């Protein structure tokens, strides 16, 4: 039993210290959150949600759900900039893991996002309002996709400001998805459609996938393993070593004119 | 150890050559064009646009396009490319700011407005590529063997000009708002407004959108279209130039005489175009529409082939061969004097209510006259065959429309027996796409009626070998085409089983 007793005794100060660091981090992280992008996305999203009400006349359920989808997309485009941090290189060395730093950012944004989404849903006239739970699922999926994209760009490319590229990708996907997604996925149905429930099953799957991807991408790559490169690098030096192997590969690929690393 | 200091020669004063600035702009434009055309959103948009266009154009208009409709079909795809160019041009303009190289660029020979001009030229290159795609799509339609009519350059320019307009907007936006989230958010807002409000616009305001689709259900001769295509192209071009000149002005080119003059000229162009396109359908077109609908025979050119005269609007003259093949097929199966009785195929169109109103034509009352519409291919072919057979059996279109007796079997058999797949064509001409039971048979004019018994008998007849059936029909032609002949009598004459289905017209 001594082993079990020593573990909590040894961990407690670490946990306390971590909690203390997190609390200290709240203010600096809150300062670096790109509130302007979120505010712009949220503002335009509210405008999009209000279009059916402002345009007057009878609002169809299709118009209601389209406006809410556009609102969710606007907010997600703003949230794609959430991980933008010009000082990322300098904060990489702090003793708090990336997953906590990212989680802190997400946590700071979630309450305003929830309030904003409630307002957006309420802006759609009641007779045209789609089932709140289902449409919230769609909005959450869009947001999760944006955040997962940003986390992926940070992890794979070490980008300081992944927002622009991620928002462009998200927008491209959002424009093309209704055109190209198979109709039996029925992702973009109107309320009352017999496939509405099926479609939301697919939305749930997408949400789970996006959350999983975001969670995986938030962890810091501990070390990079490049077995292939290590094998090929010979002690003769990087140029000679790679040059010795390159001609054969180059001939095989037919493009070995410029052996650049 | 002595340090030898070699005097560094003073740098020669840099004199900018007169053409250096232009060459620098062009060099930068080449670079930006390459960057813009290889950005992922632009590549994806072009790939989707081209794939979708190719997929659709393979089977569009059932292989018989009227080019005055085909030109409008080129307008919507480029909007996708335009949005991608807007986004990417905006990002390209913000690149130097994002990577903090603005300071380095400021010391180069190229002024800030020169860099903007280079970006605008890259947008122009994207518009040129779109123009190539649009030209390819239209040329494909025009080269189809069944193509008729004339396209309008104004309608064809809309696609490339929308790309230019949206790209110029992206460049201008980068000069107005430096935030990288502005362009994507604005695109979403534009899409929302276009989806929820844009299509409901009426009157002159709807022509302010880049691409104004008219969901045409009727194909009109090209001089009756009545869309202000040229004015709209002028408006789009003027607006695009205005945005481009404004972007140059905002990039520190405000003192350039050329830029000032360009803004003034472009605004004038856009205004002239906007005023020109806001007018209603011109009176001359309205009158011409009435003439074409009420007295088409004055506009027709007629061709005589065998015993049939084909009168068509001049643009449709190449199509008389397609009509003649159907008429000859139907005639070959007929008996009695129907094989060489004079017939007149008259092309008619209801143009008085414009492009988006579908109005049925009244049947022709004179004997031996058949109506043919402006569309062809697909379902229109068996429909025309039914109309020809109806006139051959009953004498005129009006009497064919009122027919409610056993002659219907002969009419339908004449129309369908020579088709490659008679049963499929039977389903295509029937309103409910069925091949059993009673149904309405669609036609260019009044619909015909088939009872269950007649359908049953027709299917029995179609199942016989064609020569055998043709011999039976020719042998009993006089009885089969006698007015008020009963379906049971028709079955007896043809030597088929008496049908069991009900035999009452609706």
TrEMBL record, chain B:
Domain of life the protein comes from: Bacteria
Keywords tagged on the record: Membrane, Transmembrane, Transmembrane helix
Residue stretches spanning the membrane: 36-55, 77-96, 117-140, 156-174, 181-201, 229-251
UniProt name for this protein: ABC transporter permease
Organism encoding this protein: Streptomyces cellulosae
């Amino acid at each position: 039993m001594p082993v079990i007793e020593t573990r909590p005794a040894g961990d407690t100060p670490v946990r306390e210290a971590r909690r203390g660091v997190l609390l200290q981090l709240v203010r600096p992280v809150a300062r670096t959150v790109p509130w302007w992008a979120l505010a712009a996305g949220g503002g335009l999203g509210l405008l999009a949600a209000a279009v059916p009400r402002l345009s007057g006349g009878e609002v169809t359920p299709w118009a209601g759900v389209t406006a809410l989808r556009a609102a969710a997309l606007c907010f997600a485009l703003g949230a794609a900039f959430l991980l933008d941090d010009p000082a990322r290189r300098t904060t990489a060395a702090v003793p708090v893991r990336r997953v906590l730093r990212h989680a802190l950012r997400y946590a700071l944004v979630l309450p305003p996002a929830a309030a904003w989404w409630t307002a957006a849903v309420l802006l759609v006239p009641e007779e045209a309002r789609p089932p709140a739970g289902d449409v919230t699922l769609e909005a959450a999926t869009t947001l999760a996709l944006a955040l997962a994209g940003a986390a992926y760009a940070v992890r794979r490319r070490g980008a300081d400001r992944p927002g622009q590229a991620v928002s462009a990708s998200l927008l491209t996907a959002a424009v093309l998805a209704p055109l190209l997604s198979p109709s039996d996925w029925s992702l973009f149905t109107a309320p009352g459609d017999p496939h509405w429930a099926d479609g939301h099953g697919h939305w749930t799957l997408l949400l789970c996938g996006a959350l999983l991807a975001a969670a995986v991408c938030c962890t810091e790559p501990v070390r990079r393993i490049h077995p292939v490169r290590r094998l090929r690098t010979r002690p003769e030096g990087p140029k000679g070593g790679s040059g010795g192997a390159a001609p054969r590969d180059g001939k095989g690929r037919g493009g070995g004119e410029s052996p650049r690393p | 150890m002595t340090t030898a200091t070699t005097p560094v020669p003073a740098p020669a004063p840099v004199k900018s050559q007169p053409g250096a600035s232009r060459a620098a702009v062009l060099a930068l434009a080449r670079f930006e064009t390459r960057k813009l055309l290889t950005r992922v959103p632009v590549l994806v948009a072009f790939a989707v646009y081209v794939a979708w266009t190719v997929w659709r154009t393979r089977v569009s208009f059932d292989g018989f396009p009227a080019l005055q409709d085909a030109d409008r079909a080129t307008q919507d795809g480029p909007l996708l490319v335009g949005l991608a160019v807007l986004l990417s041009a905006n990002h390209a303009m913000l690149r130097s700011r994002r990577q903090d190289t603005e300071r380095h660029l400021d010391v180069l020979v190229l002024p800030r407005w020169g860099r903007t001009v280079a970006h605008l030229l890259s947008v122009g290159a994207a518009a040129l590529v779109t123009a190539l795609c649009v030209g390819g799509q239209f040329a494909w339609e025009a080269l189809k063997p069944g193509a008729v009519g004339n396209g309008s350059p104004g309608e064809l320019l809309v696609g490339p000009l929308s790309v230019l307009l949206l790209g110029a907007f992206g460049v201008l936006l980068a000069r107005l708002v430096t935030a990288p989230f502005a362009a994507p958010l604005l695109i979403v807002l534009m899409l929302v407004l276009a989806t929820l409000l844009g299509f409901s616009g009426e009157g002159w305001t709807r022509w302010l959108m880049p691409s104004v689709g008219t969901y045409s259900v009727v194909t009109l001769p090209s001089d009756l279209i009545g869309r202000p295509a040229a004015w709209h192209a002028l408006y789009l071009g003027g607006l695009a130039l205005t945005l481009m000149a404004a972007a140059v002005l905002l990039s520190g080119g405000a003192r350039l005489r050329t830029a000032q003059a360009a803004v003034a000229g472009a605004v004038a162009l856009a205004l002239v175009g906007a005023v020109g396109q806001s007018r209603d359908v011109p009176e001359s077109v309205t009158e011409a529409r009435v003439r074409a609908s009420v007295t088409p025979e004055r506009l027709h050119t007629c061709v005589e082939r065998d015993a049939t005269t084909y009168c068509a609007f001049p643009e449709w003259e190449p199509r008389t061969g397609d009509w003649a093949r159907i008429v000859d097929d139907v005639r070959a199966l007929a008996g009695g004097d129907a094989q060489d009785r004079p017939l007149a195929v008259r092309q008619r169109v209801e143009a008085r209510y414009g492009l988006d109103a579908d109005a049925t034509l009244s049947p022709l009352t004179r004997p031996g006259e058949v109506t043919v519409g402006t569309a062809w291919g697909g379902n229109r072919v068996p429909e025309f065959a039914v109309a020809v057979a109806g006139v051959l059996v009953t004498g005129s279109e009006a009497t064919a429309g009122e027919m409610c007796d056993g002659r219907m079997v002969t009419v339908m058999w004449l129309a369908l027996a020579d088709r490659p797949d008679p049963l499929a064509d039977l389903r295509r001409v029937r309103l409910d796409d069925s091949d059993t039971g009673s149904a309405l048979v669609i036609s260019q004019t009044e619909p015909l009626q088939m009872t269950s018994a007649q359908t049953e008998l027709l299917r029995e007849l179609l199942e016989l070998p064609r020569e055998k059936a043709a011999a039976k029909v020719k042998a009993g032609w006089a009885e089969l085409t006698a007015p008020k002949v009963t379906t049971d009598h028709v079955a007896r004459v043809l030597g088929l089983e008496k049908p069991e289905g009900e035999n009452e017209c609706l």
